[in-house]
Inverse folding.
């Protein structure tokens, strides 16, 4: 698996579980999981870009 | 499913409050087989999601040849790694079945696999705590 797919898979599973644990309604869970997934991906890509100049 | 106040319950499903001993048993069952605590507490959907989440993470970790910590109480990081990995319950004891070639943390994938396995253990611990809370009636 590529590292990006690894990261996406990890973020997806964690987001689903956090959504399930953090909210009590179905709509609330889906919204929380979606926001959490987007946040995981956005922060990861932002950190990757910040680290890029030091990668070589 | 029906909206009850601010929570979700199946139709006709009432909140059942169990003793702390029974709740501890559910949590223990949930540690050994991820999601079983929720299933015993009557929350089938949540139990299945927990099982799938923990199984997906830990199997991804095994197939990426992540490192599975054996018990080693002399070294702090090793002990934490063992506690995290052992929290995956049944999956910890069958790690050799999936990792027939042993770990390979020289590759990045193997290192990621180590994190996947540890994270699966942490999720399973959260699931066990959740099963306890559901059983004593603190959560829906």
């Amino acid at each position: 698996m590529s590292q990006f797919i690894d990261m996406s898979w990890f973020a997806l599973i964690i987001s689903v579980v956090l959504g399930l644990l953090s909210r009590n309604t179905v709509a609330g869970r889906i919204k929380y999981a979606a926001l959490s997934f987007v946040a995981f991906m956005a922060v990861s890509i932002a950190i990757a870009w910040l680290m890029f100049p030091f990668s070589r | 499913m029906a909206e009850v106040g601010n929570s979700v319950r199946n139709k006709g499903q009432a909140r059942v409050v169990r003793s702390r001993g029974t709740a501890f048993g559910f949590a223990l069952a949930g540690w050994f087989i991820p999601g079983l605590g929720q299933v015993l507490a009557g929350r089938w959907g949540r139990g299945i999601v927990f099982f799938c989440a923990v199984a997906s993470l830990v199997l991804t970790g095994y197939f990426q040849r992540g490192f599975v910590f054996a018990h080693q109480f002399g070294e702090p990081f090793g002990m934490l790694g063992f506690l995290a990995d052992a929290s995956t319950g049944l999956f910890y004891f069958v790690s050799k079945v999936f990792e027939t070639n042993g770990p390979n943390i020289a590759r990045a994938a193997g290192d990621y696999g180590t994190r996947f396995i540890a994270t699966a253990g942490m999720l399973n611990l959260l699931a066990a705590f959740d099963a306890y809370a559901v059983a004593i009636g603190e959560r829906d």
Helices of chain A lie at 3-22, 26-51. Chain A has a mean pLDDT of 92.
